[in-house]
Amino acid sequence: MTEDAAQGQRDLSALLVPLAGELLVVPSAVVVEIIRRRELERPAQAPEWLLGMLHWHESTIPVLCFEALNGGPLSDTGHGGRIVILGVLGEHAVLRHYAILAQGVPHLLLMTAADLQPDPARSAGAVERMKLRVHGQDAAIPDLDAVEAALAHLSSGGR
After folding, report:
1. Which of 17, 26, 57, 83 is the 20 to 30 A CA-CA neighbour of 137?
2. Of the candidates 100, 103, 109, 108, which has an alpha carbon nearest to the alpha carbon of residue 148?
3. Distance separating alpha carbons of residues 33 and 107, to the nearest angstrom
4. How far apart, in whole angstroms, are the C-alpha atoms of residue 49 and residue 109?
């Protein structure tokens, strides 16, 4: 197989974001920036999954704990974590960006559509599209529409 043919088969680029207990497979097209964990300003009466607000490039964006938004426990190790800033996909979005707290350093993954095989032994959570295995590790593909809907609900005064 030629190098060009091999590269043509690796047509999906994603970021593997380490969470508590699994990896989140995030399309690289929505990843804007990855920064070190820093202090956040927590709004009064924010839902548990909203870790706080981050001042970033002359704007303020919400930083969420994906695990808690997905119905799991709050996970914030503090040290060594990264903040993964994502661009909003929805055309009716109130926010342009938001962030997910990673429990380590995310890394790039190049894969093919054939690599996206569901894990039938595990059920997807509230803000996940699918559970799968990536290189022998538990992983999930997030439902970014559901995440953005939760953030829009929060922006409109919902909890």
Report:
1. 83
2. 100
3. 12
4. 27
Helix ranges (DSSP H) in the chain: 3-9, 66-69, 144-155
Facing residues of 38 across strands? none
DSSP string, 38-64: ---BPPTT--TTEEEEEEETTEEEEEE
Q: For 108, which DSSP code?
A: E
How many residues appear in the chain? 159
The per-residue pLDDT for range 10-54, each reduced to its tens digit, is 578 999 999 988 899 999 999 999 999 998 999 998 999 999 999
Which residues contact residue 136 at a Cβ distance below 8 angstroms, ignoring those fewer than 6 apart? none
Residue ranges and CATH numbers for the domains of the chain are 29-155 (2.40.50.180)
Q: What residues pair up with 102 in beta bridges, in sequence order?
A: 82
